[in-house]
Every structure is written in C-alpha cells, then in structure tokens.
Amino acid sequence: MDGQNLEDPKSTADMTVFVQNLLQQMQSRFQAMSDSIVTKIDEMGNSINELEQSINELRAEMGAEGSPSPLAPPKSKPDEVKPDDS
Q1: Degrees, nearest 5: CA angle 79-83-86
Q2: Rounded alpha-carbon distances, angstroms, from residue 78 to 68, 69, 82
Q3: Confidence band (pLDDT; 50, 70, 90) for 1?
Q4: pLDDT at residue 5 above 90?
Q5: Is the pLDDT confidence value at 84 over 90?
Q6: Average pLDDT over residues 45-70
Q7: Residue 57 in contact with residue 51, Cβ under 8 Å?
Q8: Better pLDDT: 1 or 33
Q9: How far apart are CA 82 and CA 63, in angstroms?
Q10: Alpha-carbon distance 12 to 21, whole Å?
C-alpha cells in the first residue's frame, strides 16, 4: 500500500494555517501598497493644483489674464502682416 495517498490530518491542518497566514500577509502588504499609491496620487494632485494656482496668480500679477496658455501656440492677429514666401 502506498503511504503517499494517505494524508496526515495534522500536516493538512498545518498547511492550511500556513497558507491562510501567507494569504493574510499578502493581503496586508497589498493593502499597504494600495494605500501608499493612493496617498501619492492625492499628493501629486494637490501639488498640481497648487502649481496651477501659482501660475494663475503670476499671470494675474503680470496683467496677462487674457493671454493664451503658454502651452498653446501663439495665434497671429488679423492686423499683423505676414511676409511673403517669395
């Protein structure tokens, strides 16, 4: 008779406890990482909001409220004369 087919209830219980503990540790670490990522994203969002506010304050101080965004290409005014390509 082959002894490998008979499972020792104590070793099965030990293995179950080991696996449950391992899964609990993994879940705890995953939750900690997830919380850390969410915190970093929130901090980045706050930093971006502060940066936007600073940019808007600087633009207001310069009297450039109506100027285009620095990221937008400058638009030519209709009264400007463009040189000919010839």
Answers
A1: 150
A2: 16, 19, 10
A3: very low
A4: no
A5: no
A6: 84
A7: no
A8: 33
A9: 27
A10: 14
